[in-house]
Amino acid sequence: MDQLVISGGRQLKGTIPIYGAKNATLPILAGCLLASEPVTLENVPDLEDIRTMLELLNYLGAETRHLGSGRLYVDPRGFRGWDAPYELVRKMRASFLILAPVLAVQGRSRVSLPGGCAIGSRPIDLHLKGLRALGAKIRMGYGFIEVQAEKLKGEEVYLDYPSVGATENLVMAACLAEGKTVITNCAQEPEVVDLANFLNSLGAKVRGAGSDRIEIEGVAALGGHPGYRIIGDRIEAGTYLAAAAVTGGEIELVGVDPAHLRPVLAKLRELGAELAETDTTIKIRRSRRLNSVDITTLPYPGFPTDLQPIFTAVCSLAGGVSVIRETVFENRFRFTSELARMGANIKIEGNVALVYGVSTLYGTEVTAFDLRGGAALVVAALAARGTTKISCLHHLDRGYADLEQKLRAVGAEITRVTA
Ligand code: EPZ
Ligand 1: which residue has its CA nearest to atom 27? Predict the structure, then answer.
């Protein structure tokens, strides 16, 4: 089993390239199934989750080919399948994003139920409420879901919660439906906007993405695209900003839009970091002592839940008490037990973590329980005294490409070993 071995206490200095956003690439790959001509994507990150989604597209009959340097060719013309197998869906809940595009094109779609995961139960009721409103017949089987519709019809859909996945599935379903669909109280994340921009580049008519109301005028068919560039990964960027904040030093991120990180940059300034930005870069330096901050996670444009574990790790070394409130998922503090083994002093009360800052964390053996919890341990280890060994790296490999190479390039002492 691989381990990351990190000797902490080194200041990070230099430049880190930010790759394409995992959570934009996944819905956009699902959206390729709606195209009637080949699509080439640019800035595609090389991640385990992306490889799983490509396996799924291949299983359904679409051809995919890596063209090198982040470019990916997808030819949907062989796409005939409609049944996503359990062994693929269980590997990644985002497989559920193919439910609607498969339904829209094949008239039926069958996906194993994604089930919960380490951070919460992850229900799908809002996805189904929306598809039902557009005319789909839904059959729940044992461990799978099947939806059917000769032709989806546009309708108004209110989302009880601005679910990212439900918004993405419904936007894709509505693109080829008859008439107009209006989704209200929808997710406003940049990845939703990127999906809408991608679909519009194929000929779809999606308006209002990035607001709480999206209107989609159904069209007969979508074309292809010779080179659609995926946005930079704001969560990857926020992770490296946190690493710079917690170790001190000065790094520059290249390939991310700071407008996608407003609440995160605000909290970094409150923590005591100094920031400078252009349209595609963010510079951070931190020389003063870390101040405690209060964070509440919210749907975009609020503070992103995916960066909550990583910033909780930073706060564990900040002077004073930080109050971290997790409102999006019900079980996203598991990693704090591993932080405590490094000397962090954190008290969990329901969906609130009270983080009593300590002066030093100590390296030890720790385990990643999920993707962002694992990233929190990396950030803590970079600042800890001594050596930390992190196991269960498959979680990290789902969301961070070239993690150790990027950190080593800015001065971190980090290696991946096979235990
Ligand atoms: C997306 O997951 C992201 N994944 C998650 O990132 C991210 O944490 C999450 O959005 C919130 O920003 C991808 O984009 C692939 P949701 P998703 O539906 O779409 C409730 C990572 O680390 N809900 O917005 O599954 C749900 O229980 C991952 O990269 C319903 O109640 O998130 C949760 O409390 C982790 N009914 C809340 O909404 C539904 O039908 C947010 O879930 C759907 C969701």
Answer: 122
> Cα(24)–Cα(400) distance, rounded to whole angstroms?
14
Question: Model pTM?
Answer: 0.97
Distances (CA, A) of 93 to 34, 40, 119: 20, 24, 12
Tokens coding 330: 């019900």
End residue of a domain, out of 204, 229, 254: 229
The answer to whether 10 and 243 have CB atoms below 8 angstroms apart is: no
Tokens of 321: 């008490």
Q: Cα separation of 241 and 315, whole Å?
A: 13
Domain residue limits at 178: 22-229
Characterize the bridge pairing of strands 144-148 and 137-140: antiparallel
- Rounded Cα distance between 412 and 382, Å, is 7
Q: What was the pLDDT predicted at 118? A: 72
pLDDT of residue 88: 86
Residue of 158, 159, 164 best suited for mutating to test ligand 1, as the one with most atoms within 8 Å of CB: 164
